[in-house]
Design a protein that fits this description.
FAD/NAD(P)-binding domain, alpha/beta, disordered C terminus, globular, single chain, four-stranded antiparallel beta sheet, 3 domains, Flavocytochrome C3, Chain A, domain 1
């Protein structure tokens, strides 16, 4: 079946929905928003801490936020991208509020601002400790009320459509690769439908599910990055995987692991060993408020030194009622495990959290493929550089959704639908035996990435990961060519592609920088004189 939309958006988090609302309100054409699961399940909804923006001009300013971002990114962030996001932040917040998102305020009506690691000022807007969920809720309601947006839940994008699908040989050196839409799997028919578009936007979120423990939902399999890479689009900085320092340690809950927000350290939480001993003074003068790459490596190092599986976050010295007020969901979650955070330490350990690299885009969110934009976590805008500053991701998604919307609205009338695209060939079947193999291969990808491409790396480990992923790639591509596409096998393909990209980019970076730390090129991550 062939369907046509002027704007085709793949991904239903804050980036995809913000873009959908902007282009819909322009009246420039029909809009389709494709979600691989339900609207509610996205990386956005899992974000606890908040969204960073300069709003208190009495003490804060753009220059401070820009400098904090550059420092956290190890000075390899793109200054133009940093300036665009920081200066566009206040307008982005106004858009979210206009769409129905609520942020906590003080009695005087001003925003109740938090401070998080790496920030020099209190500039984190939040909604209790479930800010992402509130943003997702507000945007979902706005999208569902917009009659011009067709929402397709539980639909899975299999491939980006380019000239390749009409018989043109496309390589990474082919000029003017062009996107004509996407092939999308319909769960009701088990058929792959052809969606033609004038403009396509990839907003598919992150890659955390390639690791065995992640704060991301299971759906974060890097689908957009993998599809664009296979379509010969540029992908950059995949070595910079952010491991959140403080996920709740619970071996039974790894996909997703429960996040203990960075705002809890901004609130005054102290990292300790289980015996109560502080340790961050050994690694950084900012102690528990150091940027995430430093804190995650410090925790990883302490766990290895002492042979322990977690460290602890301590807020027992804070006022119990204030703690419950600021972190009601964390309090309830820990209490369900027998941990009263007003009296007991919280067991925490690092796990995969955020991809700082992705599909390379310009300041308008345009990828290297014409008519194809990428926004949100799947994109590499240059904002994050070597390490994302806490709470910068949600505001990046909103600002770049606005930039991409403005640009695509200007040019959409110059594009036409390509009616020469063939429908998907869906011959083949998938047996139960093959389904078991797919599930096992997914576990193997998780094991490879967590063991060899984690917080601390080496060339030996990376080469070992490369070799094992290469074998999985060959086996999976052979299987994919002879079966009908299913969500599971498509996700496996994407996970392998993403794992390969992270590994390859890590091997190519011959230094320790930001989130990429390798013992073969040991710039000391803990040496203050080198930072």
């Amino acid at each position: 079946m062939i369907k046509k939309f002027d704007f085709l958006i793949i991904g239903g988090g804050v980036a995809g929905m913000s873009y959908a609302l902007k282009v819909s309100q322009s009246g420039k054409g029909k809009v389709a928003l494709v979600c691989k699961t339900s609207f509610e399940e996205s990386n956005t909804s899992k974000a606890q801490g908040g969204i960073a923006s300069v709003t208190n001009l009495l003490v804060d300013n753009f220059d401070k936020h820009i400098e904090d971002t550059m420092i956290a990114g190890d000075y390899i962030s793109d200054p133009a991208a940093v300036e665009q996001v920081v200066k566009g932040g206040p307008a982005g917040i106004k858009d979210l509020v206009r769409w129905g998102v609520n942020f906590d305020k003080k009695e005087d009506g001003e925003f109740d601002l938090h401070r998080e690691g790496g920030h020099s000022e209190f500039r984190i807007l939040h909604h209790a400790d479930d800010t992402g969920f509130e943003i997702q809720r507000g945007l979902m309601e706005a999208v569902r009320q917009d009659k011009n947006i067709t929402v397709l839940e539980n639909h899975f994008a299999v491939e980006i459509i380019t000239q390749h699908h009409i018989g043109v040989r496309v390589t990474r050196r082919t000029p003017d690769v062009e996107c004509f839409g996407a092939y999308i799997l319909n769960p009701e028919t088990d058929k792959v439908d052809t969606y033609l578009s004038k403009v396509t936007v990839v907003a598919t979120g992150g890659t955390g599910a390639v690791y065995s423990s992640t704060t991301n939902p299971k759906i974060a399999t890097g689908d957009g990055i993998a599809m664009v890479y296979r379509a010969k689009g540029k992908v950059q900085d995949m070595e910079f995987v952010q491991f959140h320092p403080t996920a709740l340690y619970n071996p039974k809950e790894k996909h997703p692991a429960y996040l203990i927000t960075e705002a809890m350290r901004g609130y005054g939480g102290i990292l300790r060993l289980p015996n109560g001993e502080e340790f961050m003074q050994k690694y950084d003068e900012r102690l528990s408020l150091a940027p995430r790459d430093i804190v995650a490596r410090a925790i990883d190092n302490e766990m290895k030194i002492h042979g322990i599986e977690h460290v602890c976050l301590d807020v027992t010295h804070k006022d119990p009622e204030e703690t419950k007020k600021h972190f009601p969901n964390i309090y309830a979650k820990c209490l369900s495990m027998g941990i009263d955070i007003t009296k007991d330490y919280i067991p925490v350990s690092p796990c995969a959290h955020y991809m700082c690299g992705g599909i390379k885009v310009d300041l308008d969110g345009q990828s290297s493929i014409r008519r194809l934009y990428a926004i949100g976590e799947c994109s590499c805008t240059g904002l994050h550089g070597g390490n994302r500053l806490a709470s910068n991701s949600l505001i990046e998604a909103v600002v770049y959704a606005d930039a991409a919307a403005k640009h695509s609205i200007e040019v959409v009338d110059t594009y036409k639908f390509n009616d020469n695209i063939p429908e998907w060939n869906d011959e083949g079947t998938l047996s139960n035996e093959e389904q078991v193999l797919i599930a096992q291969d997914m576990k193997e990808v998780n094991q490879i990435m967590s063991t060899y491409v984690g917080i601390v790396r080496s060339d030996l480990r990376l080469h070992r990961a490369w070799e094992r992923l290469d074998l999985l790639f060959e086996e999976t591509e052979h299987l994919f060519k002879r079966v009908k596409p299913t969500k599971d096998i498509c996700e496996l393909r994407n996970m392998i592609n993403v794992g390969y990209l992270i590994t390859r980019h890590a091997l190519e970076r011959k230094e320790s920088r930001g989130l990429h730390y390798t013992i073969d090129y040991p710039k000391h991550a803990y040496d203050k004189t080198e930072r």
